[in-house]
Amino acid sequence: MAEELILLDEWLSMYGMRARIALAEKEIKYEYREEDLTNKSQLLLQMNPIHKKIPVLIHNGKPICESAIIVEYIDELWNHKAPLLPSHPYHIAQARFWADFVNKKVGDASGRIWAGKRDGFEAAKSELVESLKELEKVLGDKPYFGGDTFGYVDIALIPFYTWFYTFEVLGNFKVEAECPKLIEWVKRCKQRESVSKSLAGEKEVYEFVVHYRNTHHLD
Amino acid sequence: MAEELILLDEWLSMYGMRARIALAEKEIKYEYREEDLTNKSQLLLQMNPIHKKIPVLIHNGKPICESAIIVEYIDELWNHKAPLLPSHPYHIAQARFWADFVNKKVGDASGRIWAGKRDGFEAAKSELVESLKELEKVLGDKPYFGGDTFGYVDIALIPFYTWFYTFEVLGNFKVEAECPKLIEWVKRCKQRESVSKSLAGEKEVYEFVVHYRNTHHLD
């Protein structure tokens, strides 16, 4: 059967990058469709009527929404190569716990930095740094969160790296000074083609955020 | 090997009930330990140092945290009977999507009703009713969210029923008037021993909330 696979995405989205990296790890071909989030397509509204958010993976006409769920779907369906989740239920549970931590803590603090008011910066910055330090402890001396292999938690976290430059400029700090081992891990991840070709550019993110903050009168 | 299985829980918790129902569906024996959340045990702080929340399932000394992750762990590890998630990756993704919706929408609105200030009631109540109506549409004419079998989304949602009475008294409305089919589904779920023995009492929840709101000067 001819597979039809479409990714509704937005290039700068941390969550969209996760889907792109997972598809690249599996070497799955798909049609990429950039969404203009200020003017969402009918297809996006029809495929994700509940949250109206990207990314949405449309597989033979059926939508899969929410980045963590998309990555698990990709891993479960195309299980012939590059397993993203570990095999033992306990290790799977641990990976899900830390990916969920990335969403709840890193995701939340990041949003408050780039799209929040300046008076909330210090609290959000502390929370971000604290969360990244926690993740650095989990990484320990392993090459990847998945151990020797790049996996689910790596995919959940690495897209946030592309926003670090913006956070650093806005918050006047350096992630590397706080979490040097995490930045070593970033460099390791970026050597993978699946990652490097899926990540937005740091300067591109920064320009978007500056424009966003100006037009929303946040500075 | 002798298995050691302990559930750190709090009887009135919607999230704890999920773990109890999943374990009951699988007919797994475990030691239940009630936590006093105003004075958390050393074991809880040690087993879930990140969120310090119940439920925590401790399996042979190793913790699994977050209710959705615990239910998936139980389903994956004890896969000999009563499958909770469907078998096809697309249906799994759909089940995860709706369980996540329960957490994000029903869970959030519920919290704002029972532990929030009165001036936030109307907005939270509308959001709760709207979310329950959305879920009622997903249920459709099926006996369970899992289709003919009770499953993952059923487990995610049914514990909230035990709090409906409290929401109704506080918000002066009736869930049944808004979502009659959902209440039919509740009755069907309650006929299962796994559910009936795992759910807190509605009056017990109400008394807890009245006491909580009094001591926190919320009314």
From TrEMBL, chains A, B:
Domain GST N-terminal, chain residue ranges per copy: 3-82
Molecular function terms, GO-annotated: glutathione transferase activity
Name of the protein in its database record = Glutathione S-transferase
Q: Report the catalytic activity.
A: RX + glutathione = an S-substituted glutathione + a halide anion + H(+)
Identify the InterPro entries for this entry: Glutathione-S-Trfase_C-like, Glutathione-S-Trfase_C_sf, Glutathione_S-Trfase, Glutathione_S-Trfase_N, GST_C_Tau, Omega/Tau-like, Thioredoxin-like_sf
Please report which protein family the annotation says this sequence is part of.
Belongs to the GST superfamily.
- From the UniProt annotation, give the residues forming the signal peptide: none
- Alphabetized SUPFAM superfamilies for the sequence: GST C-terminal domain-like, Thioredoxin-like
GO biological process: one example:
glutathione metabolic process
| Role | Is involved in the conjugation of reduced glutathione to a wide number of exogenous and endogenous hydrophobic electrophiles.
